[in-house]
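The instructor's notes for this session suggest beginning with a concrete chain rather than abstract definitions. Hand out the sequence below and ask the class to guess, before any prediction is shown, which regions might be ordered.
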Amino acid sequence: MLFSTALAVGACGGGQSAEPASLHDSAPALLDDEGLPMPTHPSAWPPGVAQDSARRYATAAQAADLRRALGAAVTTVEVACCGDAAVERAVIAALGPAGTLPKALLLEAGDAGLAAAAADRLRGLGLEHVWVVSP
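After discussion, reveal the predicted structure:
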C-alpha cells in the first residue's frame, strides 16, 4: 500500500518540482480550479491602462490555453474598426443568434480601447467571463 501511494504521489507531481519556477510565474490560468476568473496577470495589462480596472485582460498565450481547456465553450470575437459601431457589432456577435451569453468570451482587437468598451458593455449585460486579449 505504501509503495502504491508513493507511486501515485510521484506520478501526480508530489514533492519537489524539477521545473524552474519561472515556468509557473509567467502567466497563470484565466480561471481558477472552481471556474472563477482569476485577477489579471501583470503581463496582460496593456500599456497606459490603470491596473485597478475591473476589466480583465489576457495575453495571447492565456487566451490559447483557455481555448484548449474549454473548447467550443469559448467564443472569440474580433473587435474591428471603428468607434461605437465596432463596439455594437462586437456585442451582437458575442450574444450570437439566440441572444444568449457565451460561457467565456475573448475580445481580440488591434485597438484595445474598443475591445475594452465592448467588454464593459458585455459585463453590464451579465457576462462575467470576458477578457480583452492584449495585442
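Then share the key points. Residues 83-95 form the longest helix (13 residues). The CA atoms of residues 85 and 114 lie 10 Å apart.
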